[in-house]
Each structure stands twice: as structure tokens, then as C-alpha cells.
Design goal:
By secondary structure, the protein is mainly alpha-helical. The protein has helices at 2-12, 15-50, 69-95, 140-147; strands spanning 60-62, 65-67, 106-108, 115-117. It has four helices and four strands, in the order ααββαββα. One of its GO terms (cellular component) is membrane.
């Protein structure tokens, strides 16, 4: 039993577990902040434009069944606004050089069929130049230079 406790303690206090817990807590707080921005500020701008902060009262009656499409519309607008806020925050953090926003995933090299990162410009196996599936802004110059024919 004592050995099992030591193993559990090492697991629970290990770096990865604590990093995961801290990331989850910070992520939950960040989600609350973004949701508050979207609902308390941006949805209020929608209210100023359309005269109501939400559309939950909008409904349609069809064969004696009330379809409350307004609730869906309110949730949809809230989702779009929250997605726009997250997109803007990520773009700002990326521009400021904060965070790791590298593309995730792999694809096949068209030349050698080995797997490379989706944002790779050159295959690490056969060294062929490849166009990335997801290009970063700083890589666009390299891609454009490849496409220009060489001048004699």
C-alpha cells in the first residue's frame, strides 16, 4: 500500500499533471473572460443595433407547435461573437510573438510519401521543396520566390 501511495504521489505531483491542471484552470478562467466579453459587451452592441439583447422571444407556430427559433438565433450570434473574439485574441498574441501557434498534424510528401508537418516547406526525408497545406505569413515570401521563374 505504501508503494502504491508513493507511485500515486509521484504521478499526481509530476510536471505533466500539474501543467495539465494549471492549463485547465487558466483555460476555464479565460473561457469565462471571453464569454463575458462576447455576452456583456458585444451582445449589448447587438442590442443597441437591433433593440433587444437577445432574440429568445421570437417564435413561429406551426401545427400548434411553437418553434422558438429566437433562442437558437441568440445562441448562434453569441457563438459567432465568441469565435470572433477568440480569433482576434489569437491573432494579437501571434502578432506579439507570444504563445506557440504552430500548425498541428502531418501529411504525405508528394515526392517520397513520407509524413511531414502540414506547414513544412521542405521534406525532411527527401529534401524536396513542397508547398505547405497551412502557410505562415513569414513563409509566403519563400513560397512566392519558388514560383517565380529564374531570370537568365
Amino acid at each position: 500500500m505504501k508503494n502504491a501511495w508513493k507511485e500515486f504521489k509521484a504521478f499526481a505531483m509530476g510536471g505533466n499533471m500539474l501543467d495539465l491542471a494549471l492549463g485547465f484552470i487558466i483555460g476555464a478562467a479565460f473561457a469565462t473572460l471571453v464569454e463575458s466579453l462576447a455576452s456583456n459587451i458585444l451582445m449589448q452592441l447587438v442590442a443597441a443595433i437591433f433593440g433587444t439583447p437577445d432574440f429568445t422571444e421570437l417564435s413561429l407556430t406551426l401545427n400548434n407547435a411553437e418553434i422558438t427559433y429566437g433562442a437558437f438565433l441568440t445562441d448562434f450570434v453569441g457563438f459567432i461573437l465568441m469565435a470572433l473574439v477568440l480569433f482576434a485574441i489569437v491573432k494579437l498574441l501571434k502578432k506579439a510573438g507570444m504563445g506557440n501557434f504552430r500548425a498541428q498534424g502531418q501529411r504525405e510528401c508528394p515526392m517520397c510519401k513520407e509524413f511531414v508537418a502540414v506547414d513544412a516547406l521542405k521534406c525532411k526525408w527527401c529534401t524536396a521543396d513542397i508547398d505547405p497545406d497551412q502557410a505562415e505569413e513569414e513563409d509566403l515570401e519563400i513560397i512566392e520566390a519558388r514560383r517565380k521563374p529564374e531570370q537568365p
